[in-house]
Amino acid sequence: MKKTKLTSAILVFTGILFGVLLTTSTTIQCSPSHNALTAETVVQTNPMDFTYAAEKSVNSVVHVTTMYKVTPSQGRGDIDTFFEFFFGRPQNPRQYEEPREQPGGSGSGVILSEDGYIVTNNHVIDQASSIEITLNDKRTFKAEVVGADPTTDIALLKIEANGLTPMHFGNSDNLKVGEWVLAVGNPFNLTSTVTAGIVSAKARNINILNADLKIESFIQTDAAVNPGNSGGALVNTRGELVGINTAIASRTGSFSGYSFAVPASIVSKVVADLKEFGVVQRAILGVQMRDINAEFAKEKKLPTLEGVYVANVIERSAAQIAGIKAEDIVTAIGGVKVKSMAELQEQIGRYRPGDIVEITVLRNGKEQKFQVELRNLSGNTGIVKAVDLAQLGAKFQPINNNTKRKFGISGGLEVISVDKTGRLAKAGVQKGYIILKANRLTIHSEEDLAEVYEQIKADNDEDKVLLLAGVYPNGQVVYYAVDLNE
Predict the structure, then answer these.
(1) Residue 454, helix vs strand vs coil
(2) How many CB atoms lie within 10 A of CB 4?
(3) CB atoms inside a 10 Å sphere around CB 401
(4) Catalytic member of 230, 250, 265, 340
(5) FRET label pair with 60: which of 33, 47, 457, 477, CA 20 to 30 Å apart?
(6) Which helix (H) or strand (E) segment is 55 a member of?
């Protein structure tokens, strides 16, 4: 597990997994609460009175618990893995029992609709075999994952229920540093816990998410947040949802001063995409950039310390087509000023491919504006469809930049988990395998693999076989033939 230092602290995801802390190392207008006038009256009468916000919030925050499948044969060592890889599964049933479930993680979630849509963190439910939701009135429901987005650490769940108490989105853009907020969740399995603090900072990038296209623009608060708060609500004094609590900075694994929440502006867009498409529609500007500090500004003779420096523009990207060049300084996205990469990523993250946004830059000291039609990861403006590779019995993720550099490749799809009963496992594929080609087509994403998979299933051939070419982390190149016949 990766630990990232921040002022001599450990950044800790605030979910609990297998009884230990999870440690490691984003234009939607948010709708106001229907009771905003009543809440405003309360706030104006006594801005230190949090009772209204607390009462309005606790019934909308749920307890999320998970189960994970484990196999008794796991952890037998490299020797058994070696023999299994080359000679197949031994016939001794005592060595290979069926996977069984055991208690997994604990976290929180927020009800978004009367009919059972719930938002939480992706790391709370990642790879869970089953998810249970406990409401504040102690009713329990099984939940299904509608979609999840590791790049923002947001997931959308659905339970079969009606008449629930949803929490309405507030406008996280309007949050002020020093403004009071409440954190509502289930720390250490203590249900319906409310703590108060102030907004300490905005647009914090703390390098806790492990994804190449991550969006980190956290709201930093000093509201007490502990393991189990992950996925819970950060609310303003009007009882509106302004963020999803995600991580803490800590030397001990428990709260020691600072917590971080994904702003509602990002959450609402991600949730809308997951609900409509099952996958987030990521808009890509197509630039490599860096923040500007005094030393860099002096080196490059830049006229300002504010904005984001464009180090390089990707060929045929949205930025290049619009006319943005290297050495430009991006100062605003859609009329909203940006002073850092985190703020730029947050603003771009609100749009979908095909949206046209005005980008303001400084070029040679003069302000210029460009109308940019944003694109998706494939370089076009089409809608990305959700991928269903469940029958392969594995989970995947695109390789990161370190892996690309290690093997000198432009992309690939890593197998991050394998179901022992799935098709890939039966073919011999193991966790860590990086798929480079499938049926001779280059694979960079799940969408690429899904396209090949669907084409094979649609063919009239009697033998349906998925041919994989790839490499393991140790550099070993391996080929597999995966039987897709029913």
Answers:
(1) helix
(2) 17
(3) 8
(4) 230
(5) 47
(6) helix 51-58
**Per-residue pLDDT at 403:** 85
Known catalytic membership, residue 123: yes
Q: How many angstroms separate the CA atoms of 159 and 111, rounded?
A: 10
Tokens 């703590």 correspond to: 195
Which of these, 463, 470, 455, 466, lies nearest to 486 by C-alpha position?
A: 463
Measure the CA–CA gap between 129 and 142, rounded to whole angstroms.
11
Tokens 């432009």 map to which residue?
A: 410
The tokens describing 106, both together, are: 């604990």
Residue 364 and residue 45 in contact, taking contact as beta carbons nearer than 8 Å: no
Q: Annotated catalytic residue: which of 149, 153, 273, 328? A: 153
Q: Are 415 and 394 in contact (CB under 8 A)?
A: yes
Burial class (CB in 10 A: 0-12, 13-18, 19+), 366: exposed
Residues of the chain with pLDDT under 70: 1-12, 14-47, 70-99, 211-212, 387, 460-461, 486
Question: Among candidates 62, 63, 58, which has minimal Cα distance to 195?
Answer: 58
Give the DSSP H/E element, type plus range, for residue 146. strand 140-149
Residue with tokens 């390089």, as numbered in its chain: 312
Specify the pairing of strand 241-250 against strand 356-363: unpaired
Given 25, 57, 63, 123, the catalytic residue: 123
Closest CA to 251 of 16, 4, 19: 4
